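hey so i finally got around to running both of the ones u sent me last week. sorry it took forever, my laptop kept dying halfway thru and i had to restart like 3 times lol. anyway pasting them below in the order u listed, first the sequence line then the structure token line for each. didnt double check formatting much so if smth looks off just lmk and ill redo it

first one:
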Amino acid sequence: MQHALATRPGRAATRRPRRPGSVVEEVAGETREGTKGTIEGPYYVPDAPALPAEATLPMREDEAGTPLLFQGQVTSVDGTPLPAATVEIRQADDEGYYSQFAPNLPEWNLRATVTADETGHFKIHTIQPVPYQIPPTAPAARLIRAAGWHPWRPAHLHLKVSAPGYQLITTQLYFQGGDHVTDDIASAVKPELILAPTPTGNGRDHEVTYDFVLDKA
């Protein structure tokens, strides 16, 4: 099931049209004032482990990758904090694999549902993901090869953020300067969804703050 490599491929010369999924999402989100959404993407599994407002994602003891503190606040459009908002997060590991869709990964590796505190804040300790390829056996793979496109997605976090009485936002967050941010095969990157992590005091770990704004239902 090899579908994710850390090496950087060559760029394809053929220009890709925008994928229908990204267009549909954009139309659906035209009336939203809050955080930008994007395609859900694959590998979503409901009922990930519930964790408190400050938590470390389930991971192996020797999980490879750069440690990342992903933190922020969930508010309404008018700035009101949303206590007990939920932040569902999932991501690939340092080799580009998702738990439950690759062998030898713990069931809920790098997946969780985090409940924000009474002021809507959350702090999630994880690792910074890497780019990965669309699996060569995926339904779209044959089209990608025939068109001469590269099959790569930039590194990203998948998120579903919700609160009672507010619209669920489904989105992905990307990393500034990363490979394929400018030529994502899924055409899902938006400027508002790009993170710029900074080193922490130890010089090795990274941290980044991103706030979510929800529209009323």
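and the second one:
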Amino acid sequence: MRLIEYADREVLAMDLANLIAGELKNALLSHDTVSFAVPGGTTPGPIFDSLSAANLDWARVQVMLGDERWVAPDHEMSNARLLRNRLLVGRAAEAAFTPFYIDGLTSAEAAETLSPQIESQLPLSVLLLGMGADMHTASLFPGSNGLEAAMAADAPALCPIDVDGQDIGRITLSRRVLEGAMSKHLVIFGDEKRAAVEQAQSLPALQAPIGAVLNEATVHWAP
């Protein structure tokens, strides 16, 4: 794990967007298409705003989420909705997007249906991750129903997850997929999350899932 500190969040967003754009361009030099997985939530929004204007061949970029809540794409809690509003605009509107939510299917059924398609896009060319203070990443939540299966070495590309106390189910890329990405970036803000990511490196993977995917990752931190 390599840690990069930034003066503030605005600088982080601009610098990281430029870095990711450069990595995608380099990957496109040797591949017909490249894959790019991103988080939901509010943290990556400013990064997406800058990245969407990057001058690269977006039509050859396959974009997917690291995880999704099991809600319709127009729901306010949908990660796909955030992506369409913040990343898949401007130049980046030409990118191909693989949504995980399939109307009429359960998260488990959709995971089984979509996993072969995701497999065809592996290894991920570039992976951008977020992390909660509980040391979850994507929807790999400590103590969640489905975590052990999603963390297994032979897990399918996509796995269903149910979190205690949450009414909405989830679907997530498995540990194997996240760990195998060619380039990995984790964005965190504040002292609490910095302490959490440092602690995660010495904890069991099921207790701190983020720790399982930090090998060769770059952590981008701002206060």
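quick thing i noticed on the 2nd:
The first strand starts at residue 2 and ends at 5.
anyway thats it, ttyl
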